[in-house]
Design brief:
This protein has about 70 residues and is mainly alpha-helical. It contains four helices and no strands. The longest helix is centred in the middle third of the chain and has 27 residues.
């Protein structure tokens, strides 16, 4: 996710917004992988709380993207 943001940071605002989209998409993929890991008992409930951090990151990134106005 951070790599997508870094890659887009040197581009136009519109392109940067696209890279933010990719990054947000990757965060949803990560969230899904956490749920699968929990379902398969690879992680515990405490680790699954990372899902809350991911949701917070998604909100902040979407807010930033909206401020770009693209």
């Amino acid at each position: 996710m951070p790599s997508n943001i870094a890659e887009g940071s040197g581009r136009s605002d519109k392109a940067f917004s696209n890279f933010l989209d990719y990054s947000i998409g990757s965060s949803y993929e990560l969230e899904t992988q956490l749920l699968i890991a929990k379902h398969r008992n690879y992680i515990d409930d405490e680790t699954l709380k990372l899902e809350d951090k991911i949701a917070e990151w998604q909100r902040m990134t979407m807010g930033f993207q909206n401020k770009l106005g693209t």
